[in-house]
Amino acid sequence: MPDYELYRDSAGVVRERQRAATGGDGTASLVERDTDGNPVPTHKAHAYTYDSSGNLHTDTVTDGADRWVRTLEWGNGVQTGDSGWVKQ
């Protein structure tokens, strides 16, 4: 069963990511996955858009060949939805 953890990204949004199996040295690498279960290269540069209230609306990452977009929804200043990483 996968192990998940919460973390705060560079835009301050709380996200969930899957912890990969530990290696022989006991360390774990963290891998975010898209809605199809494939790894997302979150170490690449991100592009952000914001709504009229200044809330993060989309987070886009590309590896040069593929692009993933995560869309956030907000209500009264509280995050109410997260699409997860969707490959475009």
Q: What's the total count of β strands?
A: 8
Overall pLDDT level: 83
Q: List SSEs in N-to-C order.
A: EEEEEEEE
- Supply the helix-strand structural class: mainly beta
Q: How much beta, percentage-wise?
A: over 45%
The count of domains is 1
Q: Describe the sheet with the most strands.
A: 5 strands, antiparallel
Rg over CA atoms: 14 Å
Characterize the overall form.
globular
Low-pLDDT parts are: none
Number of helices: 0
The helical percent reads: under 10%
Amino-to-carboxy terminus distance = 28 Å
Give the key terms:
88 residues, three-stranded antiparallel β-sheet, globular
Report on the structure:
This is YD repeat-containing protein. This protein has 88 residues and is mostly beta strands. It has one domain (3-87). The protein has strands spanning 3-8, 14-19, 30-31, 46-50, 56-62, 67-75, 78-82, 86-87. The strands form two sheets. Strands 4, 5, 6, 7 and 8 form a five-stranded antiparallel beta sheet that branches. Strands 1-2-3 form a three-stranded antiparallel beta sheet, with no helix packed on it. It is globular.
Describe the structure concisely.
This protein is an all-beta fold. The protein has no helices and 8 strands.
Structural topology:
Elements lengths: L2 E6 L5 E6 L10 E2 L14 E5 L5 E7 L4 E9 L2 E5 L3 E2 L1
Protein name: YD repeat-containing protein
Organism: Sphingomonas baiyangensis
